[in-house]
């Protein structure tokens, strides 16, 4: 068992048996669920929209090299610079080179899971550069020295009282501060930083191949200001974020908004196609896009699992997952939590260390049902499980148990042998700690159904 697996079990148990944690999470997810139902009403044929999105993403995944080079060519035509990073170390090294050239001391950063993936804030802090999260939820978790709890809603695990307490401790705001008052306070802090920032960092919800555009979707406008104010802008994006054409946004933007927050479309949707051009009055003087692999080509090489690269990071599968609702986002110990994180993390960070995430599922299929791009998530989890076994990553005890189980299941004599006394003894002594610690173990009947049926026939 890996260190990550052991930690997951410890953290999951703590969260599952914390009623207050589960209450907050259930309440916050329920608010999203209500809005998502309303948001889906905008589609005349939601299934057709999902099918179209799935087909487009499949086409991109199967021709990823073509679309990436097309994006690079169109982006560089307008003065932008594209940097290809094989892993997190390369991405950070290139980012620091940009920071050094810009003589950066203050960075404003838009919400981005990709930057969380490669630990941008830690790297900047280590170099003495102030890095400030501008999304309100990210700002809150940064104050608490935590990682985002959810792909879309970083502070989903917190109540308004928790947030007020955090701002009381950090900025001496009254404990009775309302969300409106806290938001106004943060807005004032951020306005100062935007004017001082040397570099703005964003992620990308989509990269448009035919125009060389970087799309950022948000509800607060802080990402837009992170793009507009600083002299230098850096967008860090996974190579899977490509879509073929600008016209595809009329499909993907509403799907992302509806499944993520229940909106028809998010409040601010920005497209950047390079640095400020002659005659333009705002925008950065320099703009870079760092295209990040960091394990994505490992996933691309898996024909059955590469479908996971279609994910548009809406967070719908997290909100639907019974496991996530119990253990919460931090227990996963990875940047991407929930069902989609359980699929991609073993390929991004290593199957040996993170194979356990693919087993942290009920396989109910709800994640597949809600996915806007129709990723068969529950099947992907099974593929990962199979691969972990084929790679010899199962412990000896597990292999032994399944070998004995298979042998018994293929033999009627062995199934009926031993009697109920021996079988109940085996259950009590070999399954109690793993399976029956908090539930009543079944009692094996004195006679099996097969034995009862033969006895009935004899009579």
User: Helix count?
Assistant: 24
How would you sum up the major sheet?
6 strands, parallel
pLDDT under 50 segments (min length 5)?
A: none
Average predicted confidence as pLDDT: 94
Just name the CATH architecture of one domain: 3-Layer(aba) Sandwich
Helix fraction? 40-55%
Question: Structural class, please?
Answer: alpha/beta
Distance between the termini: 52 Å
The general outline is: globular
Query: β content, as a range?
Result: 5-15%
Roughly how many Å is the radius of gyration? 25 Å
CATH class (first level) name of one domain: Alpha Beta
Order of strands in the sheet with most strands: 1-10-7-4-2-3
Number of E strands: 10
CATH superfamily of one domain: NagB/RpiA/CoA transferase-like
Description of the molecule:
The chain has 459 residues and is of the alpha/beta class. Among the domains are: 43-294, Rossmann fold; 403-458, no CATH class. 54% of the residues lie in helices and 10% in strands. The chain has 24 helices and ten strands. It has helices at 3-16, 19-39, 46-62, 64-77, 88-102, 113-117, 120-126, 136-143, 160-171, 179-196, 222-228, 249-261, 296-300, 316-320, 322-327, 338-349, 351-354, 366-370, 377-390, 396-409, 412-416, 419-430, 432-435, 449-458, and strands at 81-85, 106-109, 130-133, 199-202, 206-208, 213-218, 232-238, 242-243, 268-272, 286-292. The strands form two sheets. Strands 1-10-7-4-2-3 form a six-stranded parallel sheet, with helices on both faces. The longest helix is centred in the first third of the chain and has 21 residues, at 19-39. The radius of gyration is 25 Å and the shape is globular. The relative contact order is 0.13. The mean pLDDT is 94.
